[in-house]
Amino acid sequence: MKRMFPLLVIAALLGFVRPAFAEMVVIVNKDNPLATISKAEIEMIYLGKKKQFQNGSPAIPVDLPAESHLRREFFTNVLDKSEESYRLYWVRMIFSGKGQPPLTLSAENEAVKFVSQNKAGIAFVDSDGILPGVKVVTISGMK
Fold it and tell me: Hey, what domains does the chain have and what are their CATH numbers?
């Protein structure tokens, strides 16, 4: 029994570790004809500078909570912004009356559900959280 205890601890810990192969992806509703979106277009949508996708259909971005590692990854790799610079950007936009930040949802599964139920929705999630009703779009212009 003493031999099994370390194995049980390791097995329990592995259940809480995210797979190393999962990655951040951008999703849209399955009925959105978009297959590719540029990094610049995502940036404009998430910064409130653009309210439509390149095909003219409305775009509603959703965000994840501040403690999300995916949010930090998205800001760094896609928006080229830190959490603080993004927050300050939106403070200035709100104060000047030029816009409101994306809706922040409390979890990835809520973002996936929102996008699956809204043709205009766009979100970033972990690739292992993809469900029916959404599709992954390719991001062009990434380094």
Answer: 22-140 (3.40.190.10)
Spatial neighbors of 123 by CB under 8 A, at least 6 apart, are 26, 27, 61, 62, 63, 64, 111, 112, 114, 115
As a 3-state breakdown, the chain gives helix, strand, coil percent values, each rounded to 5, of: 40, 20, 40
Give the pLDDT band (50/70/90) at residue 131: confident
* 37 DSSP β-pair partners: 139
Query: Cβ neighbours of residue 50 under 8 Å, at least 6 residues apart?
Result: 41, 44, 59
**Tens digits of per-residue pLDDT, 34-76?**
999 999 999 999 999 999 998 899 999 999 998 999 999 999 9
Cα–Cα distance, 38 to 24 (Å, whole number): 15
